[in-house]
């Protein structure tokens, strides 16, 4: 089959090269940096296919070295992609095209043979909200319309990277091919990238996830700034789980372009995890030590921009407690031979939300990010520093501020200085409370799983699931106010089951069955739901959050230890009277409002969950989850 000059082959998204002889390709095309000889035959073949399709001017095989970073920084400075931030050590500011500022869920697709392998198929699910399916033919057409020649005049970078510590049995390898030096530098922070990964590939089974990325070249007539090439109109992010393959076009931003993160570690990862019997989740991992010196690990799934990074790095306000960070966004969890659920953080850095990060809210992040960091879409100050909403503004005295669009900024403008989804990309090793076991290839044992979201009304600060199946139901019923991390407009309460709605790699009904089946594989952790975001009738947060969330972790810790500090409620177990430690907390805490369960609200909530399951999951909903809903409705009716 031929499509616009690109031959299509079964078993791969990217068609075969005209010549399989890499040396031939290399002769007509200079390998400008690195040595093609270090590539395994399979990697060589993949690179060659991509060269043939994208027609770059040169190839750069990334070695992961500091010298390489210097080279790329120099290049990006010249192109205007990054600006120096001389106030700090080795920090840079990137300003994107204003049309390329967040993940684009609506243009993200999973390709499987049958539609229902990707999404629940129900008569009412139009449009479905649990992922987008694409057929093989449409996927090939999408590639054929965008990729041929898309790297003309550019350098193609080949990034070998490991998700998880290099060589760990829980880790997986990827090869990202990209035409963006910004992506290379970000991947070198967010993953373990470079030569050591190729050594593992050569010595191991040679398997890798294929990740092709191009910022794209708009159709003639469409102009974009040269400092941030992209093609927002034609952006598309494609996954083919059967071939462990990802193809992303048109965006240079975050989860769209750093393909190890959401595309690999979550979407492709969840399909591998399903096959192999483990879990790939949108979760932070933290270790917490109590005043007696006992330590547990906790994983927590909150939707994008709902507090994972903050919780993962929290400074407990409760005396005697210590929190240490294993990861802030993604957890790969697997039962070991003793039936203990163990988690690794497959990432190597933090791609964290900048606005709201301050000495008061997240001092640990502030101690992490002012070295070796790439900032994207934050504001800059005339002394060579950065600024964003929520940062202590005392620092601004006598300084001028340039906003994320590059324009002079003042508070009076009423516009944000930093984009709400502006981020820092910083090495995890720089975090002063990084857990001593964060790179342990066996992973850390997980005692509790937290689900949560932004719920301004009705949902209490914390409650506990009665058992595993109830916990899976709570994850499935998660809802949260939308944030700037995705392209949604306005603040609406959206369903975001398991905080994974944008990241499922396969049918959500099958995902639920997989979660339910975990109980048979080992000792399952306790499950909780938390909500730091409940508001008073005046619209103020009822809970101070941040370091005071340690008070909730304290209750969870005691529950994990079996303390009977709870009472039953229609929605789950609540802290019994006096069990939540609020002593020494600043300001008045209205616990009765924080834990109030309004009957009308919960009746409505149960109906909303029912409607969602019916419309979006339909016949794919596992019976035990449906039964949980029936039970909730009955209990709420008798409230
Ligand atoms: P992603 O990286 O998009 O997955 O986001 P995340 O879940 O890591 O969210 P993050 O910790 O970056 O928090 C996002 C926003 O929520 C920031 O503006 C924080 O200041 C705010 N936030 C985090 N924790 C709390 C809290 O306990 N209370 C309140 N009120 N706001 C919080
Ligand atoms: C998220 O949106 O959950 C993120 C940011 O962590 S991105 O990497 O852009 O997906
Ligand atoms: Mn995230």
UniProtKB/TrEMBL annotation:
Keyword tags: Decarboxylase, GTP-binding, Lyase, Manganese, Metal-binding, Nucleotide-binding
Source domain of life: Eukaryota
CDD domains named in the record: PEPCK_GTP
Biological process terms in GO annotation: cellular response to glucose stimulus; gluconeogenesis; glycerol biosynthetic process from pyruvate; oxaloacetate metabolic process; propionate catabolic process; response to lipid; response to starvation
Annotated ranges, domain Phosphoenolpyruvate carboxykinase GTP-utilising N-terminal: 45-274
EC number(s) given by UniProt: 4.1.1.32
Cofactors required: Mn(2+)
Catalysed reactions listed for this entry: oxaloacetate + GTP = phosphoenolpyruvate + GDP + CO2
Alphabetized GO MF terms: GTP binding; manganese ion binding; phosphoenolpyruvate carboxykinase (GTP) activity
A GO-annotated cellular component: cytosol
EC class name: lyase
Location of the Phosphoenolpyruvate carboxykinase C-terminal P-loop domain: 278-635
Ranges in coiled-coil conformation: none
HAMAP family linked to this entry: PEPCK_GTP
Quaternary organization: Monomer.
Described function: Catalyzes the conversion of oxaloacetate (OAA) to phosphoenolpyruvate (PEP), the rate-limiting step in the metabolic pathway that produces glucose from lactate and other precursors derived from the citric acid cycle.
Record-stated family: Belongs to the phosphoenolpyruvate carboxykinase [GTP] family.
Protein's recorded name: Phosphoenolpyruvate carboxykinase [GTP]
Gene name of this polypeptide: Pepck2
């Amino acid at each position: 089959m031929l499509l616009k000059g690109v031959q299509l082959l079964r078993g791969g998204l990217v068609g075969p090269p005209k010549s399989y002889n890499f040396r031939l390709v290399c002769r007509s095309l200079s390998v400008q940096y690195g040595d093609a000889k270090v590539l395994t035959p399979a990697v060589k073949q993949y690179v060659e296919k991509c060269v043939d399709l994208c027609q770059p001017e040169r190839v750069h095989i990334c070695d992961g070295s500091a010298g390489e970073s210097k080279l790329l920084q120099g290049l990006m400075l010249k192109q205007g992609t990054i600006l120096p931030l001389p106030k700090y050590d080795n920090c840079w500011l990137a300003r994107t095209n204003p049309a390329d500022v967040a993940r684009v869920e609506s243009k993200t697709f999973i390709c499987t043979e049958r539609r229902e392998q990707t999404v629940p198929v129900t008569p009412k699910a139009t449009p479905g909200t649990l992922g987008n399916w694409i057929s093989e033919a449409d996927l090939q057409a999408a590639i054929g319309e965008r990729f041929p020649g898309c790297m003309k005049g550019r350098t193609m970078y080949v990034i070998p990277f490991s998700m998880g510590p290099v060589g760990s049995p829980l880790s997986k390898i990827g090869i990202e091919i990209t035409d963006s030096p910004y992506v290379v530098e970000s991947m070198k922070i967010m993953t373990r990238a470079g030569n050591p990964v190729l050594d593992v590939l050569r010595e191991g089974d040679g398997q890798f996830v294929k990740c092709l990325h191009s910022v794209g070249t708009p159709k003639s007539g469409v102009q974009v700034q040269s400092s941030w090439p992209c093609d927002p109109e034609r952006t598309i992010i494609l996954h083919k789980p059967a071939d462990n393959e990802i193809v992303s076009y048109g965006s240079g931003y975050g989860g769209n372009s750093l393909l190890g993160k959401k595309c690999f570690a979550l979407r492709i990862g969840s399909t591998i995890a399903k096959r192999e019997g483990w879990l790939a989740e949108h979760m932070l991992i933290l270790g917490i030590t109590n005043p007696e010196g006992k330590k547990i690990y906790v994983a927590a799934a909150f939707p994008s921009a709902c507090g994972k990074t903050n919780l993962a790095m929290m400074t407990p306000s409760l005396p005697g407690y210590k929190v240490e960070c294993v990861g802030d966004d993604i957890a790969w969890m697997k039962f070991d031979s003793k039936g203990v659920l163990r988690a690794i953080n497959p990432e190597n850095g933090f791609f964290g939300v900048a606005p709201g990060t301050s000495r008061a809210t997240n001092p640990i992040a502030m101690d992490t990010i002012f070295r070796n960091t790439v900032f994207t879409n934050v504001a800059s100050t005339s002394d060579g520093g950065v600024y964003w909403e929520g940062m202590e503004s005392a620092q601004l005295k006598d300084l001028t501020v340039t906003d994320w669009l590059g324009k002079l900024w003042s508070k009076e403008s009423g516009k944000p200085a930093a984009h709400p989804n502006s981020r820092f990309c910083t090495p995890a090793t720089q975090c002063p409370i990084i857990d001593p076991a964060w790179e342990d290839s066996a992973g850390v044992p997980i005692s509790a799983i937290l689900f949560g979201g932004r719920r301004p009304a009705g949902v209490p600060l914390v409650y506990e699931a009665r058992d595993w199946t109830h916990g899976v139901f709570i994850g499935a019923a998660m809802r949260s106010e939308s944030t700037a991390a995705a392209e949604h407009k306005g603040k609406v309460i959206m369903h975001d089951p398991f905080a994974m709605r944008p990241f499922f790699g396969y049918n959500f009904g099958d995902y639920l069955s997989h979660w339910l089946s975990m109980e048979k594989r080992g000792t399952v952790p306790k499950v909780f739901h938390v909500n730091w975001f409940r508001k008073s009738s005046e619209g103020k947060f009822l809970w101070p959050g941040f370091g005071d969330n340690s008070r909730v972790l304290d209750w969870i810790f005691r529950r994990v230890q079996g303390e009977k500090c709870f009472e039953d409620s229609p929605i789950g177990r609540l802290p019994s009277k006096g069990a939540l430690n609020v002593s020494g907390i600043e300001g008045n805490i209205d616990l009765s409002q924080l834990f109030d369960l309004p009957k009308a609200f919960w009746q409505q909530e149960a109906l909303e969950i029912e409607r969602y399951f019916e419309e979006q999951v339909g016949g794919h909903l596992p019976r035990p989850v449906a039964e949980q809903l029936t039970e909730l409705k009955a209990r709420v009716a008798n409230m």
